[in-house]
Specification:
By secondary structure, this protein is mainly α. Helices cover 58% and strands 0% of the residues. Protoporphyrin IX containing FE binds next to helix 3, helix 5, helix 6 and helix 7.
Length: 142
């Protein structure tokens, strides 16, 4: 889903106003809360933690937050800084097997639950994250 299909109206500065998911769930603070909680789970995960940069977890937080904000109709800072997402390609250096996927989703589930979204918003967000995580699997090697 492109962000423009969700951005129904924009303010004087071109920022999205009303009518999109990003706004409805609370904008930047909500996405940052989601991603910071998610990374707390990653920090404690013996399989996933080694895949992430030792010295740049804050960078990783910013990249994932920015991407999710953009996807859901928020600012397009992610693409301005990182270019086209090409997520499958960007994950190729990592061994994303079903175990890694399930761990990723487990940490995301905790983080989504803690947001306390409405059932509709939660269903939309979770459905997307689950599909995206399944699409990111790039090996079935143990
Ligand atoms: C399925 C299991 C997954 C694993 C094991 C995984 C792992 C990783 C790792 C190790 C990184 C590098 C961290 C960094 O320096 O930014 C990364 C980056 C990233 N991941 Fe994932 N990921 C998974 C799924 C997903 C999903 C489902 C999404 C989107 C919904 C996603 C979005 C991103 C984004 C946006 C980046 C930063 C890309 C960039 O600009 O360089 N990942 N992921």
């Amino acid at each position: 889903m492109a962000e423009d299909s969700l951005t129904l109206r924009s303010g004087a500065g071109g920022e999205p106003v009303g009518g999109n998911f990003w706004n409805e769930v609370g904008g930047r603070p909500t996405f940052e809360k989601l991603v910071r909680r998610f990374y707390e789970g990653i920090e404690a995960d013996e399989v996933l933690r080694p895949m992430y940069p030792d010295d740049d977890m804050e960078g990783a937080v910013q990249r994932l937050t920015g991407f999710l904000e953009q996807y859901w109709g928020g600012p397009t800072t992610y693409s301005q800084e990182r270019g086209h997402p090409r997520l499958r390609m960007r994950h190729m250096p990592f061994k994303v097997n079903p175990d890694a996927r399930d761990r990723w989703l487990k940490h995301m589930r905790v983080a989504v639950d803690e947001l306390g979204l409405s059932p509709l918003h939660e269903g939309m967000l979770w459905g997307y994250l689950e599909r995206a995580a399944h699409a990111m699997v790039n090996t079935f090697e143990e």
